Amino acid sequence: MKAAVKMFLLLLCSLAALFSLSADELDTYTIALDRAERNFWSAAFASANSSIRKNYRVSLGRLSQSAGKVHDWRRKNDSRINYGDLKRPGILLEGLLGTHSAFKERLNINGLHPTNFDGIKKMLRKNGSNSRLKTMTENDISLADYKKTLEFIRDENLESLTRKFSSNSNLKHYQQDVLIQTAQKFYTIITDARLTVFKLRKNDPLFQRQNRFGNNRNKVSR
User: Fold this and answer.
1) pTM for the predicted model, two decimal places
2) Start-to-end Cα distance in the chain
3) How confident is the model at residue 209 (pLDDT cuts 50, 70, 90)?
């Protein structure tokens, strides 16, 4: 009898560890994505052989590596619904790190709103959408509200960057155009990745946060 109870407890611990592993790997991806967003412009305006650019490429490698682990975990657990591609952002972001002359001005980019979940909650708090934002999880926000807030942050950042690039007298018009187009592509990549993470958190039982405690009672909703 004692052996059976011990085996049952070991099984519960193993299941809890597995759920924690899957959820934590998505956390790892999110942290890498945060870093990729935060450091992009510093890397873009750094020289091709600089330590800043090299470190950024290492970060993108970790982003892609984490995406691969999430993909493998879903495949092993037969999660077939396609919520988006987590592997492409790392590849696409590296593709934006060009050597175009527009990036030789070494501009300092600051004051942008982050698109991470804390940034989403901060924007919702600013708009007075919910008083429980400090404890809010993905399950407390609809996909429509999340997407709307994410796009609002994206548009505000793009407007800020467009003003900065367009008003820089050191940049020729074609250089300004390159930087504005780069900003647009950058936020398309970032917001697509954020949406994929959010959908996985909200809809895939492997990644819903309640699974860490074994009490997930939420219905899947796309």
Assistant:
1) 0.83
2) 44
3) confident
Tokens encoding 61: 């490698």
For residue 219, the 8-state DSSP code is: P
**Count of beta carbons in the 10 Å neighbourhood of residue 173:** 8
Mean pLDDT (whole number) for 22-43:
91
Q: Encode pLDDT of 87-97 as tens digits.
A: 999 999 999 99
| 19 and 96 Cβ atoms separated by less than 8 Å | no
Residue 16 has pLDDT above 60, yes or no: no
CB atoms within 10 A of CB 122: 16
- Residue 42's CB: how many other CB atoms inside 10 A? 16
User: How far is the C-alpha of 152 from the C-alpha of 156, rounded, in Å?
Assistant: 6
Enter the DSSP assignment of 141.
S
Q: What is the DSSP letter of 202?
A: H
Distance CA 182, CA 186 (A): 6
Distance separating alpha carbons of residues 186 and 188, to the nearest angstrom: 5
Pair 60, 118: CB distance under 8 Å:
no
pLDDT at 212: 40
